[in-house]
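Q: Hand in one record:
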Amino acid sequence: MKRLLLPITVLFLTFLFISCEKIDSELTGSWQLKETYYLITPDEDFTFYDLFGDPWQGDISINDISLDAASFTYYYDNSGPTTQLSSNEAAIRFFGPELGIEYLTEQYMMDSYIFDIHTGIFKADGTATGIFNAEGKAIEVKIDLTMPKMELKQSEQVRVKDGYRAIPFSRLWLYANGKMDTDYLRGDIMEQISGRWSADNGKVTLSPNKVGNSVYSYAIDGNTLQFSRKEESDDSLPLNLSPYRDKVEKIIFCADYIRQ
């Protein structure tokens, strides 16, 4: 009889653990990340410069050749990691105090520019020197751009792009037994890892192995699943939002998934 006690105890504890996990059957299935964004509610009227919006306006020229400013898009490259403003004509990468420029497949660097989100300006004027295969060469760069802007009104919630993909769960498989698999993004590396999940009172807890818990509010509308989380810490705000923190009452991060 004593030999039976341990297996019975293990089975009972396993049953107890599983039964305590609350599962919303609507959540089960396969979900693919569609987009991420922020909902922000201003404390006052102000001009918001939307780095990840379009179009950028102004002038860009390299060696006195004008480029189409409206064709440039600002985004975060997690393989760098750097932010960059690029089009089919050129790519401008931000390396702290230095500016990297890719033009006609060659690379150049310049060490003086102005990039100010508060005023929405990006300016550079000077010589960029070649590196790698372009060593010994130089190009003349002139940039005078204005960032895309939005006029925000007090207490009116607006949607703002998230260019940093601030949720690592690129795809989710949620099973009825409380287990989960996920394509989990670390930097520029996608890993498939397993774990557990549970849902209770409008909140879902995702617990991938060796990563830790992530808790989000959730809502389902047909084949669309939305995760959301109010940003409580200023440290968690991305570059495009942190300069406006004193003008904003509430910031909510959202991630929309589509059922597969």
Notes: Helices lie at 2-20. DSSP finds one helix and 21 strands in the chain. Confidence is low (pLDDT under 50) at residues 4-20.
